[in-house]
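Below is how a single chain appears once it has passed through the pipeline. First comes the sequence as given, then the structure the pipeline wrote out for it. We keep one example in the README because the format questions we get most often are answered faster by looking than by reading.
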Amino acid sequence: MSINASFWSKWRYRFKTMVRYRLMILTSAPIVLTLIALIGMTIYWSIHYTWQSALVDVSERLGVAENSIELIQEKQANHVQAFAHSYEFVKRYRDPVTELGDLQHWVSQQRHHYKLDFLRFHRVDNIESKFRFMDLTRRESFFDVLTTQELSELGDDLVKRAQTPILNSHQVEGRGLVSRTVIPIYNQTSDIIGFLDGGLLLNNSTNLVDAIRDLIYPTKQDSLRPVGTLTVFLDDLRVSTNVPLDSDDRLGRAIGTRVSDEVRQTVLVDGQEWVNLAFVYDAWYITAYKPLYDQYDNVIGMLYTGYLMWPFVTTYMTNLAEISVTTLVLLLLSSLLVYRGSRDLFIPIEHIHRVVKMIQLDKETRIGHLGLDENHELAQLAKQFDNMLDLLEQRKNELERAAGELESKVNDRTISLKEKTEQLELHIQLLNQTRDKLVVNEKLAALGELTAGIAHEINNPTAVILGNIELIQFELGDESQRVAEEIEAIHVQIDRIRNITRSLLQYSRHGGVQDEITWQHVNPIIEESITLVKTGAKKRDVVFHTELQAHHCVEINRHQLLQILVNLQINGIHAMQGKGELTITSEDWIDNGEVRGVVIHVQDQGCGIKPENLNRVFSPFFTTKRDGTGLGLSVSQSILSQSGGELTVESTLGQGSRFSIYLPERAHVELLVTNL
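Resulting structure:
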């Protein structure tokens, strides 16, 4: 209350003391009154005209919708007539050999060809049935309501298609609203032998109402009328509609809802059209309803079209707001002209006052020439004030220049220190990398000496085993065929032992892989490794899962890849303590849309690896197992690196680890030259 009193007292003071405000109010009053009267007249005229225009528009669109349905019924009648005069139909019903059941089944099958929902031939054997069907031929096409039994006689699927669940209740409307065409069929002597009954089922026919809606509302969006809706009613129940259940059409269509009581009384009971505002399901619509009649002129349903009221009102209010804003702008412009005219009397003083305010806001400006005589007191005051401002500006520029020079020197020193720091960090990083490589080389050297001795010691008993197996096979002679598979398995495993020892010897010589490198599919090698590991894991509760999706071949040493896979799988089983799921997958290695090779993943559900140990798992002699040697992963990594591949690991403590083998499509050229 005190704020309003202060505001009005302030303006009363200005009105009494300042001439320009009094002139502005006195000259603006007639303009304001005239504009207010103009706005009132515009609002009254626009409300009356716009509303009447909207009702006429929706009524015309309902007429177009009714004409569209009549055209559809006419097209339906033409299709039934065309079928009745078709050669195949005439031939079949005139053929005395044709059974009635076969004829009716064939006729029903032709409905899709003629774009009908049902098509049936009724043979009449008595006068009563003949007159009953003749009564249906008074109109070429008509609307009718059929019971569930009548629908089942016309088509097996019509009963299910006609069912319309009533919203917010447990009831289902089983009757069907159809558009029928019934025509008589004559024999050669022009006697009626039956009737052909065809038409469309309107229940749940969303394509039909959408097609008619698109016809009567051809534009997607109108400034005053958004996309309209169309509904076909059976009595007061919506059986086919595109009225949404909510404003953004997320819940579907309002099929199964009822019309308001007021509209039902006017259209269904009184048989009159309704063109007015109506509540449609959950919102107000500008609507038009028209009754639907059967062949006996009984009201059996309704046809509706309309569009939402709220977008119409919103657009209308927006237009009124635009008119109001335009009027206010004109009012402000006229007031501004009056104000400018009155202010010309006080331009010099107001100009000085404005410059002083701008200086207080730290904005650079000057009074300049006031259009007065040089000896005028205000002109002298303005000149002295501008000289004082020029002097202050000069001092301010000198201070800013000195501050800028100081800041530039500080920035130069900061950049120099930053460059020195980056160089120092780079040297430290290179030093750490060099130290790590020296440590790894020392371990690999020791590993080479150890593996060489192990390989020689394993080869001796392997040769003895091989010799004894060959001796046993020679002594058994033909009897050896009974254990041929076992002997062959021993030979295969001996070859595998030799390949492993040969790889160990080659690893210790720093000379690379000496075995043959060939083009291979990795999937068979993976399956072979799983077979070998399963043999040793039979007493363990381990489930193997495979997803072998790799399609490309790569250049690899088959035995060495088999050794690496077996090693990784056994490590996974040990990590799970012999219980869990072991997943082996393969896929094409694709980088930037280009196939580079193949990737193999071995994933377990074990204890995982601590984050601080992830960078050490490939180091020689590093192991967390009491009986481990720490050589498996190191040897595997070394073998892969010699052929251009790589072995990586990802692990989550307590959840498991995943080792990935990256195999390039072709081995390095340098490696192949060395092996040769």
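The chain has 17 helices and 18 strands.

See the next section for the split statistics.
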